[in-house]
Amino acid sequence: MEIYHMSDIVSLLGLPYPPQGRTSYYIPCPCCDDKPRAKHLNINLQKDVFRCPRCGVYGGVFALYSLYTGVPVDKVRDVLNERLGTSVQTEKAKQKLEVPAIQEYPITDIDTRHATYEALLSLLTLAPDHRDNLLGRGLSQRDIDRLGYKTTPVVGTTAIAKQLQSQGHYLAGIPGFYRNESDNWVFVHERRGILIPVRNKDGLIQGLQIRRDNVNRRKFRWVSSAERKDGCKAEGWPHLAGPVRSVLVLTEGPMKADVIHALSGLAVLAVPGVNALTQLRSTLAELRDEGLTEIKTAFDMDFFTNCHVQNGYNSLLALLDEMGFQYGTYVWDPRYKGLDDYIWEHCLQRKRPK
Q: What is the mean pLDDT of residues 151-160?
């Protein structure tokens, strides 16, 4: 029986090749990308899978061929046997796409991650423009200090890693850390932005997100060192703002959750995106054990008109129903995109002189 890999399909369909040395990369999604430069479909040559976090389409080798050609998945193997076989052209394509595997560390335990990230954040500062941005969202200075937001380091990432090691902190298996060509530990050099701690129900930092400055696409992204020597990927953890209660608000993005909680006192759980629900089930199961019974969704108001968001939202409701939660949806004046914007505006209204 012939064994086919994602590299075979990429070559056969004439899809873009990965950048040099990469095994995971993005190309335009045939289902949802309608702008020339949009690239949401992730192809992973090492794992032989693909996924679009925007519209939720995903699968393996045969599913990718089916997606582009319309051939039923159960018929793809026969078609590939007929088209590829043992042709010289296919073998050359395999060689062209062959990428050496990069050894990564499995992710380490939450207590170790929290200790390392806490120490990392203590070495960093928050730039004045980032502080002003957070204050403008409704957070107080006390909130900002409590949450631990900092500005991404733009220099000295090797020195930071060395200092953390000297303090006895573990770096292997911590997303964001990896070894460079000199075999020294390094913290990833990212575009300038605000570092956002993503915390679990006990307040421990599971990972970090970045709100990147001056970008229009993928403004929020995880701190990750995937596909780097001894690196480690982030896993898309949910973030809890506030104590566990019987009712909580479910929204998108840890910063939004922090702002909503700070302004309203509500318990708020954030997922990385409405189509990124991988870690949500286990988190909800833990919160249910601590008394959670009802969930109010509060995604940005464009979910009413964005079909890609609606698909993910329907999957979310199916999950909540399957787990036996009561649930409903908050709606607000559509002039305000997010619930955080709406609450902050009304807080300002109460403070303004009449």
A: 91
Q: 3-class secondary structure for 238-254?
A: CEEECCCCCEEEEEECH
Instruction: Give the DSSP H or E segment for 147.
Output: helix 141-147
Enter the CATH code of domain 238-354: 3.40.1360.10
β 247-252/294-297 pair status = parallel
Q: Could you tell me where in the chain the CATH 3.90.580.10 domains are found?
A: 6-97
163: tokens are 């200092």
Annotation: CATH topology of 103-235:
DNA primase DNAg catalytic core, N-terminal domain (3.90.980)
pTM of the predicted structure, to 2 decimals? 0.76
| Candidate ranges 95-99, 336-340, 345-349; pick with highest mean pLDDT | 336-340
In sequence order, what DSSP letters do the residues of 24-84 get, joined into one string? EEEE--TTT--STT---EEEETTTTEEE-TTT--EE-HHHHHHHHH---HHHHHHHHHHHT
Higher pLDDT, 47 or 140: 140
Tokens found for residue 81: 């046997």
